[in-house]
Structures are given as structure tokens and as C-alpha cells.
DNA sequence: ATATTTTAGTTAAACGTTTAACTGAAAATG
DNA sequence: CATTTTCAGTTAAACGTTTAACTAAAATAT
């Protein structure tokens, strides 16, 4: 055989996928019928549907997400934007976030495109391009507040977007977060009810709203219980272990007998400072953290802290986002998830 | 107004994108010309090309990745598979990997689909489905060895796949990794040259090849320098801080005067055990870690360690993968990147 | 028996690109 | 001047789905 053969007709080594057309031929129906049957459209009677599904299985059919996406104008993919990893102090925090986002997405049959909010990401407007090029149906933004004003553009063009874990006080971007105010409040109140009298605060950077809200909760609890608010008892720890350590050293000099650390990492730094100066936790100084990262229970002594619903926030954010995308309605919302005190060994009744 | 309106026909707010057709009409040429011009095909003279590019810019054109992908049978997306985050001890390690992968991908104009090697991932054969549904052009697998035998299927179907950071001794899957053997070797040799005499090893789990290779390097260095290998000096630390701590406690009882910890995290655990028992680093016990995570230099004293090229491995893995995908040639390779000793303060000449 | 409705499909357009093959005019060649 | 080559495009098919609109036959209603 093999005579001539115009062009590359029989050399066709190109990876061949099973398409809806193959199924149609195999079963002896049109491609439309196959498509309808596979999407369980009731217009196709059970018998035919069965036959088609069987054939699809036998032939090893898998639909092309590209073809489907093209006609439906949906990609079933959302982008998750996280801060540049080099900058991340609290990796466990982001690991948890990502986990929540991933789990919720896959349960809905969506895929997760990971993006890092680098300088290039912003300069080249990737956050817009991904939408404009129809690579994603929506976007979740976690953490950083660096260039966030740019994100207004996304909303202006009407794309589904959700902020998780933080929010922007000046721009109306839908967000889900944990109850930072209440977190600061119950942490401080807990220290008060333990009998501590000179309660310090190690706060995260105050250009981040969550830190500000935790701060406010701390203040409120003090005032409500007849404690004066003393600005001397507040030190910045910049969210890092090292920052917590330095802040605690200063607070020890000011003779605090308890401290609320704005996150577990800074609490860990505080532990180090306290131990170095020969003081005991919780007898000499009580410590409450916030976040309840997995490491919190491994500290010595195990850290009393406020559980911040990081994983859950990721899930809720995705759920809301998918809702928006599928209904085609972009709406503003504020979702604040509850926090709760996890009582361990770094605080106890004094005297 | 607002009178009836059949269904949602005239509410047709469906987001409208600028297409190649719009540009064609605007400039007064065919869509083919636009396509060719935009891809800088030399068949289109400069003048026309300019006009088309200008029009594209003015109209705000962005190509549909879906349409392009459909015809080119490429998605410019690769999947990065990491172990389930709950299981990750060494988050910094994965953060670095992801970073390397992301950076290299974006430089090539690719996107990063994140996947977690959960039980579901394996059971539902997502790793195959992503390929079959044309969602990705290639896959990078980092870390876990849990269900890796399944991955053979991917290679069998001829999809581009690269293993990063580890490899499978029994299956020929292309990989890039760091020189684990040499790492163990130079770490141990360094301890010897410092004058330490009773050198212990805290090893990671031995079902992971990297741990095995580091172990072998340790052994080789001992033998080459006339030290007998004493199995009593080897303890398992399971890659975790806690594991390192427990292992070190045992080694202290056996009077080691130095230890090579199979990663920085276990070294950190070792620090804790050593300090608790009142011994000094490096005077009483020298410690060498491996990986050189950002935290290593923050320990007290800063940890002497072997830099493992985690970030670089991610980059190289991606480069190789893209090469494979674009050339359409799936080939086996083993890429072993160099390691080097980072000399800090946890080791020093003794006596 | 005829008209109407339902059933079980089919046809063909659409999604937005790329690209092989074609075309008509201008330029180069002999 | 006739012929060939180059230039500057165009046409149309292809990628693999979905879906609105159509149809022919069967079932039901009048």
C-alpha cells in the first residue's frame, strides 16, 4: 500500500484525544446527542444515555476544558493571589489559607491558579490580564495590602473578586475575615480574669487592618474593666518572631505581668525574651497569642491563644466567589467569622 | 419603563470581549491578517503590522487563552503538585520550591496550577485527568513519595513530567534534585576537620531517598577519615523539630560531641535538647544542619549548614519541563545540582 | 381520521483563535 | 513582452464543545 498520500494524512502522529465525535460515530448518533447525554439532559432517554456513557467510558473520553470553556465562557479556574513568598513570615498561616481555598475549590470542580503579588505582577497588570484573557473566572486575594489600590480596577471591570483575611477600609471590596476586634477583646479579657494587672500588647504593623482591630479589642477590654489604657504598654512586633522578641524585651523592662501578642509568631518571640530574662510563663508573665497555628500547642508551655479561622476563611471566600461567578452578580459583602479562645498553659490564675 | 421583556434577551449584559474580528473590522483587513500581524509574522509588512498593533492597543484587545489553546493544543499552564499541606513540616522548604517554580514559569509566560497530592487526588486520578482534559501541558511533582507508583501512568501516556527534590529509585521518572550524598559528605567532613570525634547523625525517615543519600554521605566521610561507623550514633528524627529534639536527647546520652542533622528543622530540635541539658554549641557539641532555610541564620548560634538548592531546583525543573513540552520529546534525565557548606557559628575548632 | 403534542433526536451556528492553501496584483527576470 | 516570482493579503477549515432551532416519527387527543 502506502502510495503517495497527500501531505501528512497518515503520518498523523499528533497525540490523538477521544472526542465527542468519536463517541457519536461509535454509538451511531450525532455529536449533539452525545453532548446532551453526557450532561444528563432529560431530553435524552435513559437507554440512549446509558449507551453513550458506556461508550464514553470504554473509549476513555475526557472533555476538553478548552473547548468547553470557549463556548461557555467559563474556565472553572480561579486565581489565588498570595504575597511574594520571600516576604512571608507566617508560612503556616498561608499554608492554611491555601489549603482552605484548595479544598473548597476542588469540591466544586474548580482549579486553582497560583499567583504571587510581586512587583511584576502589579506592573504588568497580571491581575487584570488573567481575567481579560479568560484564564480565570474569579480571584481571591490573601494577605498583603501592598498595592491593593490597583485592585479597584478589577471591580470596576466587573470581575468576581474576594479579599480573604484582611480588607481595605477605603475601598469597597468584598471580603471575608475573622473577628479581629473580638479576638483582641477576649484575649485581653481572659488575661484580666486571670488576675493579671499590667497587661502589655505586642501589635503587628498598624498599616494592616487586622492588627488595628486586634489593638482596638485590647483597648476596649481594658477600659471596660476599669484598666487605664497605657500607650507605654504597647510595642510593635511587625508580625515576626524576632519582632516579638524585641518588643517583649522592652515590655519586660516596663514590668508588665502579661502580654497579648498580636499573633502566635510574636508570642513565640515573646517566650524567648521571657525565658532569657529568667521569668516563668505563666507564673510571672501570662501570654496570649492569636491565630492558633499548629505550632502554638507545641510551645513550652503550650500557648493560650485565640483561634483565628484561617482555613475556614479560605473556604468561605471561595464559596462566595463561586456564587458570584455562577450567578453573574457581583455584590459587595463583609463576612466576619467568629473566633474563640483556646485555653492552654501560658495563662493561669495568679495569686 | 420596565415592560415585560421576553426572558433576558435584551438584558444581554453578557460581558463582551474585544476579539480579533473587531480589530479586523476596525483596520479593514481579514482576521487572518490580524492574527499573523499580532504574532509578528514577517509576511505582514511593517506598516500594516503597526496599524494592527495600534488598533489592538486602542481597543484593549487581549487574546483568549481558550481559543488559542484549543487550536494550538497547548495551555501554557503547568501543574505543581505538592504534598497535602497539613502534612508539611517544612513549610519554608515548600515555599521556596513553589517560588522557584513560579518565577521560572512566569518568565516563560506560563501559568501555575496548584494541586495537592491528597488521597482524593490520587483516587480520582486527577493527575491523569488534568492532562487528558487538556488543562495542563506538564506537571511538576515536589516532595512526597506517598503514592508515587501511580505516576508511572503519566509517563506511560507520554505526558511531560518532572520530579523535583526527590526521585524514585525503581521508576525512571526524570528528576532534578540537589546533591544529597555530597551534602552528607561535606557536612560530616567539616565536623571531622573541626576536630570533633564522636559524630552522630539525626536522619530523616529512611523511606525518602534524600535522607538515605545524606546518610550514605555521612558514612563515606567517616570511613574515608578512619572513623568507624557506629550505628548507635544514628537516630531517626523524622524531619521534624520534635523528632530532632528526641533524637538529640538520645545522642547526648551516648556522649556524641557533634551531630549532623539531616535538615535544619531537626537541627533546631537538636539545639533545644542540647541547651536543655546545659551543654554549649559549638564548644561541647558541634551541629551541622542541611537545607539552609532562611531560619538557619536566625538560630542562636547561627547554624552551620549545607545549602540545598531548593529554589534553583524548582527553576531547573520547570525549564526542563517546558523544553520537553515544547519540543514534544519526553526524555529521561537526572539533574543533580551542587550543594555547598555554609559555615556559621554552630561548629568550630575544638581544643 | 385528523390535528396536536411529545419524543428523540439532528443541523448548524457559535465560541475566538491559528494556519494551510489559495489569489490577484505588482515586481523582477529573461 | 511574456513569464516567473514575490508580495500582501484572503478564504476557509480546524480545534472540540454547547445549544438554539429545526424535523420526522410516534403517541395522544379530538
Q: What general form of chain A does the structure show?
A: elongated
Mean pLDDT of chain A: 91
Major beta-sheet overview of chain A: 6 strands, parallel
Structure summary, number of beta strands of chain A: 12
CATH class of the largest domain in chain A: Alpha Beta
By oligomeric state, this entry counts as homodimer
> What is the CATH topology of the largest domain in chain A?
Rossmann fold
Total number of domains of chain A: 3
Beta-strand residue percentage of chain A: 15-25%
The CATH architecture of the largest domain in chain A can be named as 3-Layer(aba) Sandwich
Give the SSE string of chain A. HHHHEHEHHEHEEHEHEHEHEEHEE
The total of helices of chain A stands at 13
Distance between the termini of chain A: 100 Å
The helical percent of chain A reads 40-55%
By CATH's scheme, which homologous superfamily of the largest domain in chain A applies?
Response regulator
User: What structural category arises from helix and sheet content of chain A?
Assistant: alpha/beta
Radius of gyration of chain A: 27 Å
Largest interface: A-B, 45 and 45 residues
The low-confidence runs of chain A, each spanning 5 or more residues with pLDDT under 50, are 1-13
Adjacency order of strands in the biggest sheet of chain A: 2-1-3-4-5-11
